[in-house]
Specification:
With 287 residues, this protein is of the alpha/beta class. 43% of the residues lie in helices and 15% in strands. It has one domain: Homocysteine-binding-like domain (TIM Barrel, Alpha-Beta Barrel), CATH 3.20.20.330. The strands form 2 sheets. Strands 1-10-7-6-5-4-3-2 form an 8-stranded parallel β-sheet, sandwiched between helices. Strands 8-9 form a two-stranded antiparallel sheet.
Amino acid sequence: MKLLEHIANHKITIADGAMGTELFRAGIAGGEINNLTNPDSVQNIHRSYLNAGARLVTTNTLTMNRIFIESHSLDIDVVKVNEAGAKLARQSAGNDNYVLGDISSTGQLLEPYGEFREESFFHTYKEQAGILAENGIDGFIIETMTDLREALCALRACKIISSLPVFVTISFSTAKNGGKTIMGNSAKDCAISLTEEGADAIGTNCGSIDPKDMPLIISQMRDHSPLPLIAQPNAGKPKLLNNVTTFDMPPDMLANCMTKCIQNGASIIGGCCGTTPDHIKAISVLT
């Protein structure tokens, strides 16, 4: 069964949780480079989410686009890290689960706030999407986007490179007054624009809002789009403890928030920063 068929045939689909904070929790630094240097650890995290009830596994390729890598002077080969990320997720998921190729921000700003044009973003996303599509993914997830224009660049790139479904989730800094990203994009505008541009599912992840506020964002997006809705909150608002960013919302409390997201229209639920297999296990009982 293809990915969109699965989602259409299931009231709720469970996605995985955080990768970066899970690597950090295991004492492993470096994020996506671990696809190449520490592949067993990456696979172990994928498998732990599957064992907790996830059906969607996200590749460990969040910011592995050329602009991010080069602007941060990272010694990482864009082709190799994305190939490895896709293959590790595919091997972990097997034939019974689904792999989403993870794409996120370039870490730079578009004109007039920054020096990059939309064309540059489009081409860097097209390159990353092409690598992921050639290595066994079932669809794309464009996530943790705070600029609707950038998200649209990534969406268009994925759509032109492949016929695979594309999910897009936006990160909001407030749920009040229609929801807003740090770039001022409202939940309404995001829902309308992403739907019109051909996204196959939309929603929200991460951000600086409390998970208790995510149901409001979901409701606002539901009012303006018929697409499947995704909710992937952090495990609480980030807190700085001994110079380390921590997330302390327990699994049962996160599950309560996700219940309200489902009531407001979400059908794909998972977690973002700070969420663990225990969080995913707690929300998997909601299916």
